[in-house]
Amino acid sequence: MASPESAVNGPTMTAGAASKSLRNAFGGVIAFIILVLIGVLAFSIRLFSVIKYESVIHEFDPYFNYRVTQFLSKNGIYDFWNWFDDRTWYPLGRVIGGTVYPGLTLTAGTIWKVVNSLNIPLSVETVCVFTAPIFSAFASWAAYLLTKEVKGPGAGLTAAALLAMVPSYISRSVAGSYDNEAVAIFALVFTFYLYIKTLNTGSLFYATLNALAYFYMVCSWGGYTFIINLIPMHVLLCIVTGRYSSRLYIAYAPLVVLGTLLASLVPVVGFNAVLTSEHFASFLVFIIIHVVALAYYIKGILSPKMFKVAVTLVVSAGLAVCCAVIAILIAVVASSPTKGWSGRSLTLLDPTYASKYIPIIASVSEHQPPTWPSYFMDINVLAFLVPAGIIACFMPLTDSSSFVILYIVTSVYFSGVMVRLMLVLAPAACILSGIALSEAFNVLTRSIKFQLPGIAGNPSIAVRMWCIMSTSKENGSSTVVAPNDIPKTEEAAKEKPAKKNRKKEKENVEKKPTPSKTEKRLLVLPLEASVIAVLLLVLLGAFYVVHCVWAAAEAYSAPSIVLTSHSNDGGLHVFDDFREAYSWLSHNTDVDDKVASWWDYGYQTTAMANRTVLVDNNTWNNTHIATVGTAMSSPEKQAWEIFHSLDVKYVLVVFGGVVGYPSDDINKFLWMVRIGGGVFPHIKEPDYLRDGQYRIDAQATPTMLNCLMYKLSYFRFVETDGKGFDRVRRTEIGKKHFKLTHFEEVFTTHHWMVRIYKLKPQRNRIRGKTKKSKSSRSVSSKRDVRGKRNPWH
């Protein structure tokens, strides 16, 4: 028979549970609406490039991806895997299916096929333009899921909103930025979320999804090595700090086994998934976690004395296996000059490596280390919130929060080595900043609620609210107890002492949960200070939003293919020289003509002009690029011989001296010299410098004034203003009046930004003049061997 007490409390408990479930359902609906709005924000803020300019592909690499997607949508997946592209890297060619990360192309191709099957007539170009904004919304939702697993839904919503607008991510995901990072950041964050979800639940279902998400990341971007090294580092950290559990084993072991098997199916990765040093850390930790798991299993079935003996055997066997594996790995990589590491990976570990040994990597602007202002530009106020988020992750420290801390520490280091990896730092900074803001708002809003006039004037409500806050603080939870649950707790506290004597009643009254002074200072702040702090945080968020919108509209929306500038009277000038030059090539040259240029413009030339190029942005063959650099650095006659041996008919150079465009070939010329000199020793950088300075004026060296790049850039330049004043270098050129003997100018764009030259045909030989004595031929051949002026003869 039920007691009167239970009869009284029954309806109260039922009403409290119903109120709590209703409140949770309402909160879930609000969270869903906010997430939808965040997705709309992430998509719409990246449309400035389309609104201000037009729907066009940006930059250089996206044009290759667009061309590959066109081929995939037209010819199908099987022809894509077997596609040999003879329009790039002439005369070598390139196997596209085996040298490209197919994730982005397959994703956009699938979207195009699904959309057209629904009778929505979208072109491949339109799908490619809007792929990055769509996946930026997905990345924001993935950030919400990840942060929710670490610190709750409030922090998750804040992190999602921050990631939707962060400039560092916008720079790689605006409409038209059809590059691998467009989908890779979503895959990165989603893989981390599934790892944390598996770690928290111990579910094999989520572990399998984690391996599949990792497989998608491998298909999308070479940065997948960051995942396969960061997760083993976290697993090792958990083992060392005594946090091993079966959930940790389930989260890691299937990822290594299934993830490695799936990664090896990607043609561009293949057996590198098990043979390169970037993956060895995961295998070593895989062995360690099995040794630890075996030790824990033995501990559960043996007595303490027997366990010590077994542990000695297990540890000895584990060490022997680890030593054997390490020896095998050392033997495998010892034959490689880079010890199994790729050039980019070695550059991350040793920032000076590329500048010493691989100038082709160091020549890329996005591989340079960032400056301090770039941090403020790309993550803005998040740089100041990240330390607060790290502190919040230590209260309390869990497996998931320790992973986020490790993520931010490693990403900060890598972003300091390469400015491109600011993109990896952005999600981590948003997650930590979201945690910091959420925790700060929790403390400040509770402090304001606790000191409201209606609550502060009623001591009983204040005490009850304090108990609620103390309990939630001790449990590490930010949930609010239902008001209907408070009377039940209070009545139970009153009825229990009534059944005992007065002495015990006094002890119970003395033992009521009272907060310590430290907790009081953490939880309750003065009302004025709390209100001011909330206002300051709101202003900080408003400043962040304004900066992000400005960055999206002005800094990162302009496509590199179309340039603009503003005049003093506010007028807008559009420089469409690149498309003008590629259109001329497409309409005025033969389909089989070969075009030589520096590798930066290879993808655009192939995609927009449909002409064969010698080198492009893939940069897989350093010797071929060095050959082009050598030709550009050589005198006109030797350059003509090199280009003629490669069947080149046209040479394209980019020149910004007229309009002040700084990213022209003259500013890149020293990298051509360095890369060419790395393969052909007769090209020496000091020959192009005057007292260690790079000059193009009257003080320039004769080697510089007579090289092909100088002549093709400054030919007829003096006719523009009569002085030959270079607006980029801000000086008058040294050699103003000269003629070309082996090249002829065939086209120069309206603003002189792109200049195209044609190789003159070889002169007819006159029989009498070509006959030389045997002695003269031997002398000339000795001179050629001694000087090594032309690497091809």
UniProtKB/TrEMBL annotation:
Its EC number is 2.4.99.18. Residues 487-515 have a biased composition (Basic and acidic residues). Its main location: endoplasmic reticulum. Its cofactor is Mn(2+); Mg(2+). It is a multi-pass membrane protein. InterPro entries: Oligo_trans_STT3 (IPR003674), STT3-PglB_core (IPR048999), STT3_N (IPR048307). Residues 475-515, 764-793 are annotated as: Disordered. It catalyses: a di-trans,poly-cis-dolichyl diphosphooligosaccharide + L-asparaginyl-[protein] = N(4)-(oligosaccharide-(1->4)-N-acetyl-beta-D-glucosaminyl-(1->4)-N-acetyl-beta-D-glucosaminyl)-L-asparaginyl-[protein] + a di-trans,poly-cis-dolichyl diphosphate + H(+). One of its GO terms (cellular component) is endoplasmic reticulum membrane. Keywords: Endoplasmic reticulum, Glycoprotein, Glycosyltransferase, Magnesium, Manganese, Membrane, Metal-binding, Transferase, Transmembrane, Transmembrane helix. GO terms for molecular function: dolichyl-diphosphooligosaccharide-protein glycotransferase activity; metal ion binding. Pathway: Protein modification; protein glycosylation. Residues 764-775 have a biased composition (Basic residues). Component of the oligosaccharyltransferase (OST) complex. Belongs to the STT3 family. This is dolichyl-diphosphooligosaccharide--protein glycotransferase. It comes from Linum tenue.
